Amino acid sequence: MIVVLGEGAADDPAPALAVGLRRLGEPVVLGAPDTGAPDTGAPRADGLITVPCAMASADEVAQALARAQEAAGPIHAVVLVSAGAVATVKGELTALEAAEWSERVEKPLRRTLACLQGSHRHLRVHGGSLLILLPTLSLVGSAGFAPWAAVAEAQRALAKSAARAWGPERVTVNCVAVSGELLTSNGAISPDRPGLPPLSLATRPDMETDVAAVVASLVTRAWAGVTGATVAVDGGVWMTP
Amino acid sequence: MTGGLDGRVVLVTGGGAGIGRALCLACADAGAHVVVSSPGDNGLDTTALVTARGGSALFVRTDVTVAADVEAAVDGAVQSFGCLDAVVHNATSRLSSVAEPIDDIGDDAWSDHLAVSLRGAYHCARAAQPQLRARGGSFLLMTSPAALEGSVALPAYGAVKGALRGLAKSLAVEWGPLGITVNCLSPLAQTPALDNAYRENPALEPRLRQVVPLGRVGDPERDIAPVVVFLLGAGARYITGQTIVVDGGRFTGL
Description:
CATH superfamily of chain A: NAD(P)-binding Rossmann-like Domain
CATH architecture of chain B: 3-Layer(aba) Sandwich
Number of strands of chain B: 7
Number of helices of chain A: 6
Largest sheet of chain B: 7 strands, parallel
Order of helices and strands of chain B: EHEHEHEHEHHEHHHE
Shape of chain A: globular
Number of domains of chain B: 1
Shape of chain B: globular
Distance between the termini of chain B: 36 Å
Strand order of the largest sheet of chain A: 3-2-1-4-5-6-7
Distance between the termini of chain A: 31 Å
Structural class of chain B: alpha/beta
Largest interface: A-B, 46 and 45 residues
Oligomer: heterodimer
Largest sheet of chain A: 7 strands, parallel
CATH topology of chain B: Rossmann fold
Helix content of chain A: 25-40%
């Protein structure tokens, strides 16, 4: 069973990923502060089983995963989808107030650490996969998104450290880099760098079909030998190392 | 003075010891006026060393986690030397070299790493950008091999140093039109922190010598600082958004 952790709100990308994984036949539970479910324990309108999880601490994440396990069986993968909607807002760094910095950078990083630590408590028992979805802009930079890029590059570094530490327990930790447009609800404001280079494929990968298919594959035994890596699912835009 | 930084004004955070002190000395030797930013009295010692070598330096006691302190350091540069051409954010948490596995990272340690390395960079960027913009300046963030490769022993340190790489790449794009270059430098250098690590893990020193193609750990002043001097000088004005790895060939994966 795969647990997808995100915001859970209507404009959050986590439900789209979870729905896509379920269509591929994966048992999925969505963990989020705002589950979008009508009542505790009831599935959402889109059929997703949910557990409340604010990712406030490792204990809280571990407890949420225990509830997910009770609801849908043993967990073999946890996917952290977003750094939180607030992290993705565009703005010049010099215009950012201290309180906003804390909300957009420090809070998402605390959630990331809690997610990793809490997930590890479950996955170390039988092995498994941890994935972090992050924007390609962290690999190449993007004006107006320095805080988000900082969060994402910290997540990548943390993923590498976790991969080294937990590899002996057969726990893999990888990152999936996607267009920032798939991770933000900013609408017309594209988080990607304008102008260059062009998309190599005919269409930009979407979350529910294309990214979900890659995630579903990455958490299988086929990828047991890959850890600490970043896989870009961006349609061949940047082709970074 | 002779060198690539004649008359330029360089602010170095964490300038009281280790690589930071070496950078202060090298920048001053290259002709820069150096603002030594440090939370402790060791910044005074660095300033004394610079002036003893005939250089120009100003000590400003600075806790980079406090925005007003960083603003005062920038103001000190402008008031004493008339401008600010470059900032090197080198300060890190005092816990940087304290081994702590990822499962054991607690709120206090995590917060301290975030505050000094990352929030400190934000404070530096915010306070210095108007000055750097006026002069076509440089903003250099010191990152680490732990950011590039991950680290079992120092995951929190690696995370915040990784964050600086993300910050640098996006700021390079954001500030490029303003004429400001933004880069990272990842050093492998003999520092007091590495000395501590050797004491905790005696096997580390021979292992490092083995894995570095050049066969030695870099000297802060002779191996690392000259690259920083170059990056802050006119010869590097077309380099931005990069992580420059100065590690004797230890990491070749970029």
